[in-house]
Amino acid sequence: MAGAAYDDRDGVIWMDGEMVNWRDAKVHILTHAMHYASSVFEGERAYNGNIFKSREHSERLIASADALDMPLPYSIDQIEAAKDEALRASGLQDAYVRAVVWRGSGEDMGVASAKNPVRMAVAVWGWGAYYGEAKMQGAKLDIAEYKRPSPETIPVHAKAAGLYMICTISKHKAEAKGCSDALFMDYRGYVAEATGANIFFVKDGEVHTPLPDCFLNGITRQTVVQMLKDKGITVHERHILPEEMTDFEQCWLTGTAAEVTPVGQIGDYTFEVGDITREIAEDYEKLVRS
Questions:
Q1: Per UniProt, what is one Pfam family of this protein (predicted)?
Q2: Dist CA 74 CA 80 (whole Å)
Q3: Which position among 83, 135, 140, 159 bears the catalytic label?
Q4: Within the chain, what is the greatest distance between any pair of CA atoms?
Q5: Each residue of 244-281: b (16+ CB within 10 Å) or e?
Q6: Residue 115 bears catalytic tag
Q7: For the chain, first and last CA: distance in Å?
Q8: Domains (ranges, CATH) in the chain?
């Protein structure tokens, strides 16, 4: 299965209430989402056969769909049942779970799409460390040319496909430079997030992380903030200027795919993979498997 194209794999995918052969899980070329980014999704991980924070992900999926004016025809309980069915059908215990909602093909093929059905699918596959060896050694990040947009321009708190366009561009450029990812500033010039993960810094035994007022407040981010507070570590959620990275000692990324990944370098700024980073990575690993 390793290296196989994602449209040419064995297994089944949950689509609109039915389990469909993996290779037959298709949509029409005039699907609205393909032309106008009318799509939202969740990335989730299962550990030992259980999806971590599953219900919170389902709640966010509905909230994201609402933000894009796509009333989802499934309740949270129905979404949970769909994910459970897809996970069990995969035969995997440790897996990545992708739930996606989109505007399908219908009577509308312009910007407006109110007449088109809202569809949903859940696919499950095996996926190891998102950043490969960087998970242990410390990832190297580029600094993106694009910036995270203002909440006045786009529904920034939705996990929406359209918001990832600049992420793909920025990550491609980063990888071409030998980096694992890219760090975005926001529209005001503050440190924001990586292309698919939130970011944390350590200075003098205290943790600093950007205030998520114009980007997604990740479920893993929220989990790690609470874990730090439970350990008695002070967490400052605030606006961070890029030049402050000069004085930060440690850095890590959080996300469902990234889990807790240490960062060794961002542009010309360097960080050590220190005790707090290692501890929180180990504690997170224990939590998701508890």
A1: Aminotran_4
A2: 10
A3: 159
A4: 59
A5: ebeebebbbbbbbbbbbbbbbbbeebbbebeebbeebb
A6: no
A7: 28
A8: 12-125 (3.30.470.10), 134-288 (3.20.10.10)
